[in-house]
Sequence to fold (87 residues):
Amino acid sequence: MADRLDALTVRESNGKSYWTKLGVAWPNKNGPGYIVKLDAVPAPTEGQFVIHLREPLPREGRPQSMPDAVRQNFPNATYADDDLPDF
Fold:
């Protein structure tokens, strides 16, 4: 397993899946379990918040540039890896 997991949410629209990264998770060093750091919270679907924890894509598998709609709404957003605190 990877040393960290990406916390993601998925939205379905017109037969397509749209993934949004919400934060990261990593194993707790003081026992079983995970620490989850969220930079955003998903919109509820049928009263539930759903977060997927997945191994990060390799850097070469990530988009090289951000879609224009994302860049317009989030001008400071990047695809760079998050800095993880040392717990």
